[in-house]
Amino acid sequence: xxxxxxxxxxxxxxxxxxxxxxxxxxxxxxxxxxxxxxxxxxxxxxxxxxxxxxxxxxxxxxxxxxxxxxxxxxxxxxxxxxxxxxxxxxxxxxxxxxxxxxxxxxxxxxxxxxxxxxxxxxxxxxxxxxxxxxxxxxxxxxxxxxxxxxxxxxxxxxxxxxxxxxxxxxxxxxxxxxxxxxxxxxxxxxxxxxxxxxxxxxxxxxxxxxxxxxxxxxxxxxxxxxxxxxxxxxxxxxxxxxxxxxxxxxxxxxxxxxxxxxxxxxxxxxxxxxxxxxxxxxxxxxxxxxxxxxxxxxxxxxx
Length: 303
Description:
The protein is an alpha/beta fold. The protein has helices at 11-23, 51-58, 76-97, 117-130, 153-159, 178-187, 212-222, 234-248, 256-262, 286-299; strands at residues 2-6, 26-31, 41-45, 63-66, 101-105, 135-139, 143-145, 163-166, 172-173, 175-177, 198-200, 210-211, 228-231, 266-267. It is built from ten helices and 14 strands.
């Protein structure tokens, strides 16, 4: 099997390439810049706006895994271009190449599109996938953690100081290790009635997810600390977001748009939405996964 992968150089994409190499799956991967050789990978130079590169990416492949997307942008146009127009371009290239299967990586935020511009853009991308005419499966991951992650990394870094500012106490969230997610994406490649035209919300298997307090304390434990957890109101988080934007500009991790998403109380995967257990199940317990991730950050001199 040969598959086309977008977002291959990102956090999830790199884990997917590693897992594909172990599984013997040949990959044609999109990249903006030159990359070092990777086992089983043919690099295709281009981006989601490059129609020629996308056609070259998809030509002769058995399936597309569309991972690429914009998580953080300074305005709505950035989300629209990266998540909506980019997805449309991938669909058009796949259709032109006759690719029969599309696995689309969305986000749990698409479940509540009114809460954030990001979530709204992911929901619109899902509509395009459903109307594509290609045999599709949509995967909505919750919070993803693991080696190379730059998003949850902020929490690990803060935990060193023994103080963890978190969203309101009543919120709960599901999480998943990036390698478990990569295994799922590959498991979904073969078309079947079980997975075709389905939307799945995978997680670590923890019933009812994690409270913000539990997750903060567990990350602290992974860092060898017992942090004091401070739950911030939406207004407080908005002030922090403005300060982050003032200090880091477009590189700010906490944005006003993200605050709308973070303060929603329920980001636990929907009952009955997990992938079929006979096809896939999570293998990495979150406590051990977080501890191993903290060690990766140390070994890689991120901390």
